[in-house]
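User: Please fill in residues for this 431-position structure.
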């Protein structure tokens, strides 16, 4: 597998030599775009004006072309926010890469966002670009973060292409630390990042087929998972003073996947299937069990009304029930195992979920109503996030809505409800 990565990248870079020479032209084009937005999330059991999140943000995107075969893109994001009672200014170069193409070969090097899979709510193949999960009430695309990739592809004919990605450094999802409820003797220590050495890098291959009747893809990933697990270290200061350092710990996985899409009359159908095999599955407290996932989706539009429906199933072959330990020294391990199963959605041997998103667009696409609804049958967990958005003027968009997470005790959505439930509002101007 590593030899195939090396061959693909080497051929692409050899052809890039001629690309640089052809790019030396007098024609140089660039385009600047972006947006400015501000918003808030408010809610609370005792005070409806209790603010959970305030933010102001500036996004600037620049695309520059050098000849016909080379271009570069960069997006800079500046955000000031007050999240969980803390003011922070973030300056983030979300993407910055150079894209080179020559004949059937194309190579993209730099910080970029890459999306695999076809499902919206239940994609098990979207394992390349991490997400900022602190604002799940925003647009799904806004949560994506860039990572440094060497991303090369080659067209194998009129209907197929092979893509290879090398991930030299690891970047994880960002989750709010306030999600965890820990005793006073437990201190959160952040994430333990793998050393930036060759053996810790990741790789992925994807074969795409596109015909007039269907699109299909076969993929393989070997890399650290975007969502770390949870572990802890015991620190004994005295027989009566025992403390723990709670932290996130990455784990490595292999994912074999297949996805396809086709249309029939006015209906669009999508499918994803995957087999995820972690290294040392279940042997360490932060590593989840191996799993099989499948997702079926369909959508259709009736004039201004559009409906998307997705069903997801998950099977955990080595599932076993957790039992509350009688030894108090094992309570921390029990809590960590509980968090692991919640965040990796492995609370049951077989798990089923459904996602429905109806949307209605009116007044020449200037007014839209959406009502996404997600439901897990086991645990009776659901998420409901209705919203309305309208454009009173060109390039000006206002969005209002609410987010509700609800679940039985000791479920993930019950844990998320305190952090994410509330009313949100956002204003943005694009340029």
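Assistant: Residues filled in for all 431 positions:
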């Amino acid at each position: 597998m590593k030899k195939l990565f090396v061959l693909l990248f080497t051929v692409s870079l050899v052809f890039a030599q001629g690309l640089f020479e052809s790019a030396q032209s007098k024609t140089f084009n660039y385009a600047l775009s972006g947006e400015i937005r501000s918003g808030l999330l408010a809610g609370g059991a005792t005070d409806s004006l209790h603010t959970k999140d305030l933010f102001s943000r500036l996004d600037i995107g620049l695309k520059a072309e050098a000849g016909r075969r080379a271009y570069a893109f960069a997006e800079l994001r500046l955000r000031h926010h007050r999240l969980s009672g803390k003011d922070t200014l973030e300056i983030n170069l979300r993407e910055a890469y150079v894209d080179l193409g020559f004949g059937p070969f194309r190579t993209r090097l730099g910080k970029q966002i890459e999306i695999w899979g076809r499902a919206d709510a239940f994609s098990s193949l979207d394992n390349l670009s991490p997400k900022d999960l602190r604002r799940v009430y925003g647009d799904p695309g806004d949560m994506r973060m860039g990572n440094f990739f060497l991303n090369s592809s080659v067209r194998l004919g009129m209907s197929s292409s092979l893509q290879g990605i090398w991930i030299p450094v690891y970047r994880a999802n960002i989750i709010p630390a306030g999600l965890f409820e820990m005793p006073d003797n437990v201190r959160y220590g952040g994430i333990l990042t793998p050393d930036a050495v060759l053996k810790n890098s990741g790789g992925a291959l994807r074969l795409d087929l596109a015909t007039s009747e269907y699109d299909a893809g076969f993929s393989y990933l070997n890399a650290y998972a975007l969502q770390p697990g949870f572990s802890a270290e015991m620190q004994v200061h005295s027989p009566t003073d025992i403390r723990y350092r709670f932290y996130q710990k990455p784990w490595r996985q292999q994912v074999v996947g297949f996805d396809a899409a086709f249309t029939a009359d006015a209906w669009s159908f999508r499918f994803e299937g995957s087999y995820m095999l972690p290294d040392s599955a279940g042997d360490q407290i932060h590593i989840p069990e191996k799993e099989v996932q499948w997702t079926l989706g369909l959508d259709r539009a009736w004039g201004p009304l559009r409906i998307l429906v997705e069903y997801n199933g998950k099977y955990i072959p080595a599932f076993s029930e957790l039992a509350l330990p009688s030894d108090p020294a094992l309570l921390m391990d029990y809590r960590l195992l509980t968090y692991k199963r919640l965040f990796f959605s492995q609370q049951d041997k077989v798990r089923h979920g459904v996602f429905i998103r109806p949307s209605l667009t009116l007044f020449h696409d200037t007014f839209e109503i959406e009502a996404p609804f997600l439901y897990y049958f086991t645990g009776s967990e659901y998420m409901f996030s209705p919203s309305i958005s309208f454009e009173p003027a060109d390039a000006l968009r206002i969005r209002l809505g609410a987010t509700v997470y609800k679940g039985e005790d000791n479920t993930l959505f019950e844990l998320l409800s305190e952090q994410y439930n509330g009313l949100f509002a956002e204003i943005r101007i694009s340029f």
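For context: The chain is about 10% helix and 55% strand.
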